[in-house]
Specification:
The complex is a heterodimer of chains A (300) and B (225). In chain A, helix 7 crosses helix 9. Chain A has a four-stranded antiparallel sheet with strand order 2-3-1-4. Helices cover 67% and strands 8% of the residues of chain A. Chain A folds into two domains: 195 residues, no CATH class; 80 residues, no CATH class. Chain A has ten helices and four strands. Chain A has 300 residues and is an alpha+beta fold. In chain B, a hairpin with a 2-residue loop joins strand 9 and strand 10. The longest helix of chain B is centred in the C-terminal third of the chain and has 16 residues. The chains are: A alpha+beta (300), B alpha/beta (225).
Chain lengths: 300, 225
């Protein structure tokens, strides 16, 4: 509560107190630029995190509710084993539907590797059965045992071995995005601290005068903190606006598009970058406050 | 009010003041004299807590300066107006704002003080220079502006370090007159100066004690005025 009161005092301000510290050109520009650049980068890191989150969810959803049964058998037994497998699947709780892929569908799956003229019928290609699960899913171990007994040539692939590494990779990427945001925040704090230290050192004489006339450290620090907090807020608002515009102007994601075109915000997540400027202001408030307390202690 | 007990102050390996004791009573008027470099400015800084003695004790309004926090020091400075030799202004602010700065930092600025500020600037003869920036002022004007700033909070004590150092004789007389007027209002005054003519000029206008720093010691310089 005390922190919020102090922070609100920064925005309410004291016009007379603001004039006590002379304007310093280069630290003002440095803070503004640093805050804007960091906010711009944060928008992209945030977009990356959200995009990888969506990607992981999509992969999970698409692969988690489906599985494939592969039947490898001599050609004269293939149809019989396929029928037997479909019968087993039809009576398995948790299986919503099961469908044997047609020759055309199997050819389409193989065409990226073997070309469109593949003679599927003349090759010993296994028969694939696409299984759709209900929300509850089926008992994988139990189904494997039944298939082993009734359809010896069947191999059940529940996509776990594909899904897990993909989800893991997406999770790592999302984590890296959040780490980047943390690092950007820390770098912003470091740059603002440097600028605040420079401003405090340049104004040592002003601080001496203020102390001579009875100004408390809180008052002196406030004059610097307010200035740097407002500059950071302005810079970050500018950087965030430019970053959001850049994301908005990225090519729209298509069905066949890859990860990069999916980079961006969707729906309500467009509101998330709006948190960046206030957060930058809080970072600046804390960094400048710490720098001011340290410098005023050293100048005492 | 201000009490120094057996204080010593060393700087850069050498002792500047040694075994100095003084009790400044409310409403008193003191001159502090001595040659340049004798420690007059150091003595004044000890009197308002800007420096802490190497040994001995300084008490300001009954409190030992060593036991005071930085905030306590700031609050004490509001009771002690200081006129520095080099005045120390914020050069980017006009005289009006420099003089009212103690009110601003203490949060006591209000409309009543605005009218007091006009009176105060007129009293020190700067009524028509309120909008000027400090670098535009003459030496005497700067000293008078510094005096106005020192007294705007109506402090109990006014300490002045060579207030007539950079001004001509007429202006010295004017500044002395202002300090005497303050003393007659009940303020305690301590002026550090090497200008003996100024001290002689005060004779007959104010009851003052003349102190001298010599060989690191504080002595009474002849009879009181």
């Amino acid at each position: 509560m005390r922190f919020l009161n102090a922070l609100s005092a920064v925005f309410v301000g004291d016009a007379q107190a603001d004039r006590v510290v002379p304007p310093t050109g280069y630290t003002a520009r440095l803070t503004l630029f640093a805050a804007a650049a960091m906010a711009f980068l944060t928008v992209f890191a945030l977009a990356l995190s959200l995009a990888t989150g969506r990607l992981a969810q999509r992969w999970g959803n698409e692969l988690a509710q489906s599985s494939t049964l592969r039947i490898s058998a001599p050609s004269e037994q293939l149809n019989a084993q396929t029928e037997a497998a479909l019968t087993v699947l039809a009576s398995t709780p948790g299986v919503a539907s099961a469908r044997a892929l047609s020759s055309d569908e199997q050819r389409a799956l193989l065409s990226p590797w073997f070309g469109p003229d593949l003679p599927v019928d003349s090759l010993p290609i296994p028969q694939l059965i696409e299984i759709k699960e209900t929300e509850q899913g089926y008992d994988t171990v139990g189904l494997r045992h039944r298939l082993q007994a009734e359809v010896p040539g069947a191999v059940l692939d529940d996509h776990t071995r594909w899904r897990r590494p993909l989800e893991k990779a997406a999770g790592r990427l999302r984590f890296l995005g959040w780490v980047s945001i943390g690092l950007i925040g820390a770098a912003t704090a470091a740059m603002i601290t440097l600028a605040a230290n420079a401003a405090l050192s340049a104004n040592a004489q002003v601080i001496a005068v203020l102390r001579l006339i009875g100004a408390q450290d809180r008052y002196i620090a406030q004059a610097f903190v307010r200035r740097f907090t407002l500059r950071s807020l302005t810079g970050a608002a500018l950087g965030t606006a430019i970053g959001m515009l850049a994301i908005f102007l990225l090519p729209a994601a298509q069905d066949e598009a890859g990860f990069l075109t999916g980079l961006g915000f969707a729906g309500a997540s467009w509101a998330l970058p709006l948190v960046i400027p206030p957060l930058a202001a809080v970072v600046a408030y804390l960094a400048t406050g710490a720098a001011a307390r340290r410098t005023l202690g050293e100048l005492a | 009010m201000i009490e120094l007990n057996n204080i010593a102050y060393s700087y850069g390996g050498g002792e500047l003041l040694s075994d100095v004791s003084l009790k400044i009573a409310p409403g008193s008027f003191h001159f502090l004299t001595g040659p340049s470099g004798s420690g007059k400015t150091t003595f004044l800084k000890l009197c308002y807590g800007a420096l802490v003695p190497t040994s001995g004790h300084v008490e300001l309004f009954g409190r030992d300066v060593r036991e005071m926090s930085r905030d306590d020091h700031a609050l004490t400075r509001r009771q002690i107006g200081v006129v520095h030799q080099d005045c120390q202004f914020l050069d980017h602010l006009p005289v009006r704002e420099n003089v009212s700065l103690p009110l601003v930092v203490s949060g006591r600025e209000n409309l009543e003080h605005v009218s007091n500020l006009k009176e105060l600037l007129s009293w020190v003869g700067l009524g028509n220079r309120a909008g000027a920036l400090p670098p535009e002022l003459s030496g005497g004007e700067r000293q008078r502006a510094a005096l106005a700033r020192a007294v705007i909070m109506s402090p109990d004590v006014v300490l002045a370090d060579e207030p007539t150092g950079n001004v001509d004789w007429d202006m010295s007389q004017r500044l002395l007159q202002l300090l005497v007027e303050l003393n007659k209002m009940g303020k305690t005054i301590l002026i550090a100066t090497h200008d003996m003519n100024l001290i002689r000029a005060a004779k007959g206008h104010v009851q003052a004690r003349v102190l001298r720093i010599s060989n690191r010691k504080l002595q009474l310089a002849g009879a009181d005025l």
